[in-house]
Each structure stands twice: as C-alpha cells, then as structure tokens.
Amino acid sequence: RCQPQFREIFSKEWNTDPETGRFLYDEPIGNVASRPLGTPFEGTSYAYRHKNVLFVTVDVFHQEDPSKVIGETGTVTGTVVGKHLEWLDAVLAEARKDESIKHIFVQGHLPVIYPVRKVSSSGMLMDDRQNSEFWRTLRTHNVDIYFAGEVHANTVTKDSQSGLLQIVSRGNFFDNFLTVDVQDEQIDITLYDQTGEKASDGQYRTIGSLWIDKSGAATRIDGSGDLSLFDPEARLVHFDFEEMHSLTERPIANMPTWRKQETEVLGVRCDSVFLNTGALGEQYNALAANIERVDSRFGQAGLFNESSRMAVWAMGPFQAGHALSCSLWFKTQLSGNTVLINTASIWRKGAGFFNLHLNNGVPEV
C-alpha cells in the first residue's frame, strides 16, 4: 500500500538535487525524454549518458492496485509494460542512432535468465523470463549487458538468442563487488571477494574476470572464475566425494566463516568442504563434518552416521515453476524414515521447503 510513497522518497533522496529540486538525470537521449514522464516510474526509471556508454536504470516493480494480485509474488510483480515499456523502447532506439554511444547497459533489480546463484534472498525474478517483452526489447536494440541484483550472488549468462549478457552481482555489505573498465571496443569486468573480517580492512582477492571484445566482426566474450559464462542447461550441483578439503583452504564465497554460527549445521561445527563440480560452481561447495570416505563401485563414497553433516550454504536451484531432476546413488541399512535431500527456509518460517526421503525404502517427496 505504501509503494507510491516509497518510490517518491527514493527518488527524492537519490535522484534529485537537494538544493534545486531538479532531477539529476534529465538530459534527453536524442529526441526522447530521459525518463518515462507521466508514469509512476518517472522518478525511478531513467537513462543517463556518460562518455561512450548509455546507462538505463529501470524500476521493474510493477503494481496495478495494492489489493489486486497480478503475479506469483502477490500485488507487486517484476515486469515492464505499457507506457513504461514504450519509453524504454524509444530510449534504446535513439541510443542506437548515435554512433558515439559504443555500449548500452540496462540495470534492473531482478534477474531474467534462470537459474542464478542465490544467497539469503527471496529469489524474485522477472515475469516470463526470456519470453518477456522487456527482454525482447533489450534484444531488439542490441543491449550489451543487463545488470541485476536481488540474489546476493554472482552469475554471468549469455542470452540464448542474442549477444546480450545478464550479469547478476552481489552488491550488499560490500564484501563482494565488481569493477568495470570501459573502452570503445572492450569491456573488462573484475570480481573481488572480501578476505578480511571487515570491509574496512581492505583485504580482497580476485575470484572472477570477464572480457568483452567488440573489435572484430563478431563480439568475443570470455570469462573465468565466478564470472565464467554459466550454462543453464548443464548439471548444476554434483558431489562425488573424491576430494575433501578444509574450509580454510577452500573458503566459500559470500559465507562469513569467521562467525561460528555460519559453519554449524544442526549443532555440529563443519570445518571440511566437498567440492561441487556442477555448473553452479564452488559457491555451492558443501560444508561437511563426520563423513568417512570409503570405496564403492563408483569410486569414493561418503559414509554417513547420525552425527554426519553435509550442507550447501547457497540457495536453490529449487524454485517454484521450474522443473529439476535429482539423481542419487546410495545404500542404507536403516529402515524407517531417512532424509536424502532437504532444503530449509533462510528465514526459518517453516514453509516453502523441499524434502526427498526414504520411507521404509520408498522414495517420497
């Protein structure tokens, strides 16, 4: 109910000159106004030219009425439609007429391409994903990068039908951030992760790089580490028990290991790590404790007992409306109810979790 007031205050504090009351990003883009005047988004969506780049910030939180449910998240959903979308289309079209604008970056809070890595997040996404009119508009005008946040983790995904990149970055707490270096024909992005206890310690390590080279006939894109191009169709999480490492040797990105409670799973302190060799990468490495590695017909296996723990710090890839398959090889001598996979709510609300278990040998979900 308070969304209009929140939007007004946000625009006043962030996008308005406090002395003159003038909107800070008011220069038109070609023949198009820099913001969608006459819409609820005229203070929170805007385009701004800086040197050879056009930045377009889009307020993607759409509401028709505070009592009208319009999407899977309730009365507010992630979409850009109507006059708001028409303005975005016009701004991007004008930018492509200007040869001095070498790159176009669009930024909105919600990811479009799924799955993405997630930590301590609601996991909200844009409606209709890559089939949305919003995404099609970005494709039509050859937008270079769509920057998103929300999920507090880093994922780089190339659109399946164009050269458009989605870059989802962490952002909050400043313990994990990107730098972007721009030239006329090249974009270099570096990802840094905090290693000290506090951000003010200034201790960081490079955990990913992304290069975009537009000097040739075709754009070349390459990434490394946590900014490697992500394959949404690949196996996402895979554990084989072949390697076990200490948590100090293989720290998990975004997980504050100096806080004791963050490395405890159901009362047991975990100081070991099993590596995830799936596409979601090392952010989905598993904390572990009291698991013996033994020989099996498939190589090394994990031997679990009642004090064993194995848990992934990050969230997902389970999400409403998306199909996933799970494959496990196991042998048990226990009857009764045996948990195989369980997900918990980060907010401990007790709802919205997934559980796969054996009930006297019969798999149940």
Question: Would you summarize the structure shown here?
Answer:
By secondary structure, this protein is mostly beta strands. Helix content is 10%, strand content 29%. Strand 18 and strand 19 (299-303) form a beta hairpin.
Describe the structure.
- There is one protein chain.
- The radius of gyration is 23 Å and the shape is globular.
- It is mainly beta and 365 residues long.
- The model has no long low-confidence stretch (mean pLDDT 91).
- The chain has helices at residues 3-15, 82-97, 133-140; strands at 46-50, 53-57, 61-63, 76-78, 103-107, 145-148, 155-158, 165-168, 176-182, 186-194, 204-213, 220-225, 244-246, 264-265, 268-269, 272-274, 286-289, 292-296, 299-303, 309-312, 337-342, 355-359, 362-364.
- The strands form seven sheets. It has a six-stranded mixed beta sheet with strand order 1-2-5-6-8-7, with helices on one face.
- Overall geometry comes to globular
Low-pLDDT runs: none
Strand order of the largest sheet: 1-2-5-6-8-7
Query: What is the number of E strands?
Result: 23
User: What oligomeric state is this?
Assistant: single chain
Q: Any idea what the radius of gyration is?
A: 23 Å
Number of helices: 3
Layout of helices and strands:
Elements: H1 3-15, E1 46-50, E2 53-57, E3 61-63, E4 76-78, H2 82-97, E5 103-107, H3 133-140, E6 145-148, E7 155-158, E8 165-168, E9 176-182, E10 186-194, E11 204-213, E12 220-225, E13 244-246, E14 264-265, E15 268-269, E16 272-274, E17 286-289, E18 292-296, E19 299-303, E20 309-312, E21 337-342, E22 355-359, E23 362-364
